[in-house]
Each structure stands twice: as structure tokens, then as C-alpha cells.
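Suppose you are handed a protein chain with no further information: no name, no annotation, nothing but its sequence. What can you learn? This example shows the usual starting point.
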Amino acid sequence: MNMTEKNKHGLSRTIPGPVKRIIRQRCGFGCVICGLGFYDYEHFDPDFADATEHNPEGMTLLCSQCNQSRGRGRLSRETVAKANKNPKCLREGYANEMFDFHSEPIEIKFAGVSFYDCNHLIVVNDKPILSVSPPKDELSPVLLSGIFCGPDGSDSLIINENEWLVKSDNWDVECEGPNITIRSKHRKIDLVIKLDPPRGIIIERIDMLFDGVMFRGNEQVLEICMDGTHWQKWFGCSMSHCHIGICIDTRPKAANDPVWDVA
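A reasonable first move is to predict its three-dimensional structure. Written in C-alpha cells, the prediction is:
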């Protein structure tokens, strides 16, 4: 059905943003039945055909497969209503899904810096933010693992061998089209990841505190601050075929120890 189509009461498919946010927060940012992190907004009480308004109390989140099952009569309204009262994401504490990569080296655009075929993209005090491992066999994809934090340093998105998880205690997580957007409060975007399957992912926006180091950036520029005052800017640069792309160490060093800075 076209998103601009209206039902018999003249109600458009377009759902107001605040209503969407209420539904996302109540459902834990994923399908209430299976917990997948990409979802559709579903009217179930009543169905959209009979709805006169976008009432969040009668709406929920369903992944495309569960939504299709509902539309084709294989999933009952009663089952959806029951799951809506006790969403899987809230029971488990997270929503999850898999990144789709191929077996060839992937490219990750991290704000203003592009990494291609790198084992560890950015390492802070020996802790990698993102790491890529080779496929387990020739038919399997490369494996991405890592973590993203909010500006307060708390975990917001975790990746374990291509499976990404967003915690249900985030303030807001919106998955729409190829984008994952995480907010820590109203109009405060901390992270935007754009999926680019099977080649990689793009970090279009970031505001993160990771092990005492601050990161912020957009599609053009990555800024890094290690002392809370001075920011280093990275833009228009790329790194490829390396073990570590950017290495940051803020810990005290003994006089005879090697000193590593952003490299």
C-alpha cells in the first residue's frame, strides 16, 4: 500500500513523529514478537483500515516478516496484542539484528575517515572501538565487532560478529530505511549508522565518550579530544590494509616505554 494512501476514514499512512517515538520507547525499539531491530509501525486495535487516528495505545512494532504474517492472516490480532503488552525487547533488554557483509574486505566510513581492510579501526588505550575479523570459511562474511557509547560513556550499541544490539534503556532508537539513529534526549542525536550492504557501514554522525576520549563528527569531519579542551580534526583521509588505523593512548608512560599518540 502506498504510504500516502488514506483509509476509509481519511486517515493517512503518515504517522506523526512524536507518536512514533512513544511506540518505539514502549516497545523497546524492536519487533514485540521476535525482537528484530528493523520494524514497521502496525495498527492492531483497530486495524489501520478501521482506525480514525494514530493512537499509540493501539499500535505496536513488528518486523517486516511478522508484519507480513499479520497482513496475510497467519498472525492473529490476539497474539500481537499479547506481545505488545510484554515486548520481547523489554524482556531481553535489547533489540538486535545482523549486518549483511560479503566475504571480501569491507569499508567502514567513520565520519571523516575511511577504513578499508583494517583489523582494528580505532584503538583507545588498547581497547578497539571496531574490529574486523576474516571469514570463518570461504562462504561466510567478514566479522565486525565493537561498541559505540553515548556522550556520557554508557554503551548504546554493541556489535558481536555482525550481530548488533541496542539496549532497550536507550532514550530513543529509530531504525528507518538503512539508518540506525540513537538519541540520548529530544533532538540530541548521538549516533547515526547507515548500512551499505554488503560493502560496509557508514558512521554519518557520532557523539561519543570512549575510555576518556571524546569523539564527534559528521559525514565530512571526525574530531577527537583527549584532554577535554583541544580537538584534532580528521577529514578527507583514508586508511587501508593496516592492522591498526588510529591508535590513541592517554595513559601515563614510563620514560623507557614507547609513546603512542594518534597515528
